[in-house]
Amino acid sequence: MSRKDWTAPAPLEIERPRLPWWTMLPRKVLWVVSPIIAAWLLAVSVNQMVRRCYRYPVTITTTATLTGVGFWAGWWWSLAAALTLAAGAGVWWWRWRESFGRIADRQVRSEWRRLRIYALVWRRTMRIAGIAHRVGRTWHYPRVRRVRADGWRDRVLVGLLHGQDPAAFEAHAGALAHSFGATSCRVRVAGPRRIWLDLIHRDTLATPIAPPALAAAAVDLRRLVVGMVETGREFVLRLLGNHILVVGSTGAGKSSVMWSLLWALAPAIRDGNVQVFGVDPKGGMELGRAPHLFTRLVNDNGPDAVDLLEHVAALTRQRAAMLRDANAKAWTPESGMPFLLLVVDELADVVAYQTDRNLKMRANAALQTICSQGRAPGVAVLGQVQDPRKSVLDFRHLFPTKIALRLDEADQVDLAFGDGARARGATAHEIPETTPGVAWTITDGRRQIDRVRAFHTDDAHLAQLDAYAQSGAGPRVLPVPARPEVAA
Ligand SMILES: Nc1ncnc2c1ncn2[C@@H]1O[C@H](COP(=O)(O)OP(=O)(O)OP(=O)(O)O)[C@@H](O)[C@H]1O
């Protein structure tokens, strides 16, 4: 056989087995340090046991108790104890279902999911997704600190590695969702080197939500209930000292946010404590469904609409001057003046698509005056727009609360909310067409982004709302200041 016919042997691919360092010590030294090593091993084992008890308290306590009873008193007694425990849980579930669900069911479910899902595939998933890191021969994994299973989602508190940031998880949100059997995964920052992964299993907002009975109680302008948050909480909007921008493609359900807000405001509107001005460039097809709610309603985007916007801008300036004179910081119900709400059904028609340049400029100036000066003197704007681009609405930043319903493109999410919102989980572009009224919402100054659904107000609700508004004392007509004030 010539040298040419030789086949190079395959390189050895196994790692050399590693023995603990102390096994290399000379025997005499080993005798001396063995108590220290034994104490250290004991401490490690105790630490592991305590951790397991902390992670699975119900499972470990129950198993240990039943096993202890079995050894100590006999296995029939152990079976009897298990049956007593099950009967106790059954009575708890039957009589006090809410507390059973909140305490026992959640705890057992959390332990089960941690054991069955996260303990089993966590490390493998972290390695394949490239989130775990290898330094030398050692793999470093982000640590699962806590698991809370709410039924419709799992919340997993994760301790980040040194040098790692939440973006590492945000970039692999899809892979994490698939690996852990969820429909989506969101990342929330919980604190330094701590993030929550929200792994969603079921959409709690899948069915439309009817509005409650028209409120008889006093209306709180800081807390108007307009729907439900996916966690089951009320979806609350603040009108006092705020403006709200609603963004969504056609048919996304923008008007349901507006009608839900007017529904919550209805008693105050009926009593004249809140006055609503409306601009509906679609010829009254939307706002004209309950016209008696409006002190003034214009059904186009022409001169009348601009007059109305300038009227509200003038009232805003007038009120601001009155507050200044009275040394008051902000509007209060005690001021005797009604709170003003301006609703613009499609902002783009008024400030961008208007072909008359003069009208467009006047509308922009008036709206910016109201948005920039209206919060303190009790004037709020609720604007709706389909296209959140800056070229369409360049004063989006003047709306502290933003609500994004279904959007056509992923880029529109950050346009609506600001940079980074999509990566933090506000996936408005993924809202299906089958769930109109579902939205993401964010308020300036708060990091929290909520997934919500507005109430579904149908024709019968709007007829009821209109009749309810009509039954009141009727709006107090406010004097219109002279126009030059607006231009000033
Ligand atoms: N919150 C909701 N829950 C259930 N269905 C809703 C909800 N909001 C709207 N819908 C339904 O979705 C459809 C479209 O709603 P809507 O007209 O409000 O959308 P839009 O965003 O205002 O559309 P456009 O921009 O074309 O006016 C309607 O059939 C309506 O009944």
Automatic annotation (TrEMBL):
Presence of the UniProt keyword Electron transport in the record: no
Gene3D superfamilies tied to this protein: P-loop containing nucleotide triphosphate hydrolases
Residue span(s) of domain FtsK: 232-414
Residue ranges of the TM segments: 29-46, 79-96
Alphabetic keyword roster: ATP-binding, Membrane, Nucleotide-binding, Transmembrane, Transmembrane helix
Signal peptide boundaries: none
SUPFAM superfamilies in UniProt: P-loop containing nucleoside triphosphate hydrolases
Name the UniProt record assigns to this protein: FtsK/SpoIIIE domain-containing protein
Entries under PROSITE patterns matching the protein: FTSK
Sequence positions that bind ATP: G248, S249, T250, G251, A252, G253, K254, S255
Top-level taxon of the source organism: Bacteria
Tagged with keyword Transmembrane helix: yes
